[in-house]
Amino acid sequence: MEVQELCVNKKHIVAMVIDMQPIFIDTEEKKSLISRQIFVLNECCKQDIPVISIRHALYGRLDADIFSTIRRFPKDRCMRIKKYFDNAFEQTTLESQLVAFNAKSLLVMGVNACQCVYETVESAMSKKYGILTSRDLIGGYFPSSFQGDSMAYQRGIQEWYASRTLFMETHEHIIRSLRGEG
Length: 182
Hints:
By secondary structure, this protein is an alpha/beta fold. The protein is built from eight helices and seven strands, in the order αβααβαβαβαββαβα.
């Protein structure tokens, strides 16, 4: 998938919100994602870009503010998925829902960048979906149990996204791209 196509072909983009559940939003870094994700979701709603909210079935509901934002989407432009594995494609209806939306590219938001988001993105890329995200729409770049140099690990994860996806610096870059402003 060409990077240019990711930027301009909005009719084939689906927004995905992964695991934005209170139990996983356990640091200030992760809490700060919420307002930016809501901003992007509101833009997606205005531009008729569908959204799929994904949550781990064992860990409760989505963040209330994100949930209420997603509820504003027309019912036919919004899907919900409960998952039991890190990879949201595993034993769920995600792929069939993406096919129903005629998706070719995924605008990915959520946590944790080193676990569930990573596993889902990697699976999506193996299925030939293009990935669009930004540094400030995904969080949790290293596991909470990580004992090493967290900054080096975070840089490594960010480099993985930067080398394999359209990984923008900020959500504002994504908004401008969705609006066709560059």
